[in-house]
Amino acid sequence: MSAVIARSSTSKLVCHTTKESLRLARRALDSRLSIGFVPTMGALHEGHLALVREARAQNDVVFASIFVNPTQFAPNEDLDKYPRTLERDIQSLEEVGVGFDDLPEGRVRPGHFRGVATVVTKLFNLVQPTNAYFGQKDAAQCVLIRRIVDDLDMPVQIVVQETVREVDGLAMSSRNAYLTKDERKAAPVVYQSLCRAKQLMEQRGDCVSSTELIAAVTDFLRSEPLVSQVQYVAVDDKETMLPLDEVSKEQGAIISLACKVGSVRLIDNIIL
């Protein structure tokens, strides 16, 4: 385990190699300082760094963590092949003036969201942030984390930032590194399919059934030969992530999907 805390954009990174040293460092901070926290699984990209910059702008001190959570991998995904770019990640964090902590939480083995809840709760207890930053791409996870904070009365403000995308619309993700050249060319179909649902909402006016929206997205995905599997397309309430039968312009919704391009599982969502 290693950890680094940055007090300002020009301060030197300080490494902590145990959870105990991190706790001591956290306790040593002035209680009047605001603490920003950006949890990650490493293999950092511009999406992560955008969260870090936002945290830097809004807080006196910023922590970022790197922990590759096994529960966030599908059964047929190879955890051992997940990109480990620790040195590059530390350099990237240093360039944006942030702290870093890599916590040895161990292999949490329950279901995906239970595992996420366990790890995030432990991280919040260790770092005790004022504000914690997450990307909209993991929408269901953001709803879950907000619920944890509310249920446990944690004094943490959850800040959700818009998904950062490549020029062609593909949501930035560490898993994009798995894509072959041809798969990468095909991958923007994921975002494009979601945009089809948005276009349908705009064309139809008031209400559109979730069945129609899901069909529009699914059909567009399946038009791309390199999409090997559509795992789900869902239309849910923006606040609760409970499924909706229909969507009105006034109410809005979140439409999300998971599919495989080649053998690579990609997720994305947009707000309708």
Approximately how much helix is present in the residues? 25-40%
N to C succession of SSEs:
EEHEHEHEHEHEHHEHEEEE
Number of helices: 8
Q: Give the overall silhouette.
A: globular
Number of strands: 12
Identify the strand order in the major beta sheet.
4-3-6-7
Give the rounded overall mean pLDDT.
Answer: 83
Q: Strand-residue fraction?
A: 15-25%
Structure classification: alpha/beta
Biggest sheet statistics: 4 strands, parallel
Please tell me how large the radius of gyration is.
19 Å
Instruction: Give the distance, in angstroms, between the N- and C-terminal Cα atoms.
Output: 41 Å
Low confidence ranges: 1-12, 106-110
Structure characterization notes:
Helix 4 packs across helix 5 and helix 7 runs antiparallel to helix 8. The protein has helices at 19-28, 46-58, 86-95, 112-127, 139-151, 181-186, 189-204, 210-222, and strands spanning 2-5, 14-16, 35-40, 61-66, 100-102, 131-135, 157-161, 207-209, 227-236, 246-248, 254-261, 264-271. The longest helix has 16 residues, at 112-127. The chain has eight helices and twelve strands. Helix content is 36%, strand content 24%. The protein is α/β, with parallel strands linked by helices. The strands form four sheets. A four-stranded parallel beta sheet has the order 4-3-6-7, sandwiched between helices. A three-stranded antiparallel beta sheet has the order 2-1-5, with helices on one face. Strands 9-11-12 form a three-stranded antiparallel beta sheet.
